[in-house]
Design a protein that fits this description.
With 289 residues, this protein is of the alpha/beta class. It is 40% helix and 17% strand. It has ten helices and eight strands. The strands form two sheets. Strands 5-4-1-2-3-6 form a six-stranded mixed sheet. A two-stranded antiparallel sheet has the order 7-8. A hairpin with a 3-residue loop joins strand 7 and strand 8.
């Protein structure tokens, strides 16, 4: 195990945060961002760009020239076997999100253009050809991995001030009735703090520029979420395993979530009530490699 971890520290890694446009509309593209970790451990932020699924594939493929190990943290359901209603993992996520004052969009196969058989996400996954095994990605030294994340679930752990009843930030400019500039700035403040804590070069400067936008638009939020996705991926890879939680499984759907003590307790309680597994694939570190 010591040799594996030593090799991992000297392996260049690209953590790719992708906030996809679920229906891949040209008028409302998604956004992609990267945190690169070089063989010395230095972390560098590549600012987000607006992308279609095809353009995102190009970015991900290009990262192979920089890093032996690439992890794509995607803000979209990646496993949706259910024909109707919500996935089990969505029900658990919704318990926390509703407590924070938000909502979760149901993921099911009846959502035409999002999750039906012809939806762009399935074509993206097929062309990507990534291994969808989050636990394995933590010990890998090379390869391309995919995992599902949800920025709104990460915020109460990244920003403890958000962890309370109806305290979730209202930072989506497309929802004019609920959006607040204070909520927008608060999320950027959390990102700025994460940049300093995680020593990600360039992220603070990008966050400062975003904070200067007086009237943010949905595209700005998509780029903010792409950066959050990358930070979630970085946290999953570099923080102790108990600092994150895997809700659900790779059969019925899952999410990778940063988990403070309070967030973990709430998610575990909701999962236990719903019969949804938690950390079901967690590696037993006591076993020899």
């Amino acid at each position: 195990m010591r040799k594996l971890m030593s090799d991992r520290r000297t392996t260049p890694i690209s953590i790719i945060g992708f906030d996809s446009a679920w229906t891949d509309s040209p008028k409302a593209p998604g956004a992609i961002s990267v945190i690169r970790i070089d063989d010395k451990g230095r972390r560098t932020f590549v600012p987000p760009s607006l992308v279609s699924f095809d353009a995102a594939l190009t970015v991900i493929q290009t990262e192979a020239s920089f890093s032996a190990l690439r992890i794509v943290a995607l803000d979209q359901p990646t496993i949706v076997p259910n024909l109707t209603s919500l996935r089990p993992v969505d029900r658990v996520a919704a318990s926390l999100i509703s407590w924070l004052g938000g909502g979760v969009q149901p993921a099911n196969r009846s959502k035409i253009g999002m999750f039906d058989d012809a939806a762009p996400v399935w074509r993206f996954k097929e062309r990507l050809g990534a291994t969808e095994d989050p636990e394995a990605s933590r010990s890998a030294s090379a390869g391309l991995f995919l995992m599902e994340v949800f920025p709104a679930l990460a915020l109460p752990s990244f920003g403890p001030a958000f962890c309370g009843r109806l305290l979730g930030p209202r930072y989506n400019p497309a929802r004019r009735k609920t959006f607040t500039l204070a909520g927008w700035q608060a999320v950027i403040d959390v990102m700025r703090l994460r940049a300093l804590t995680e020593s990600v070069d360039g992220l603070c400067e990008w966050a400062d520029a975003l904070a200067a936008v007086s009237a943010p638009k949905k595209a700005d939020q998509d780029q903010l979420d792409a950066a959050l996705c990358a930070l979630i991926g970085l946290h999953w890879q570099m923080a102790p395993r108990e600092a994150s939680i895997m809700i659900g499984d790779r059969t019925f759907g899952y999410m990778i979530v940063p988990a403070s003590t309070d967030v973990r307790a709430r998610l575990k309680s909701a999962a236990d009530k719903a019969g949804v597994p938690i950390d079901v694939e967690m590696l037993d570190c006591s076993k020899p490699f």
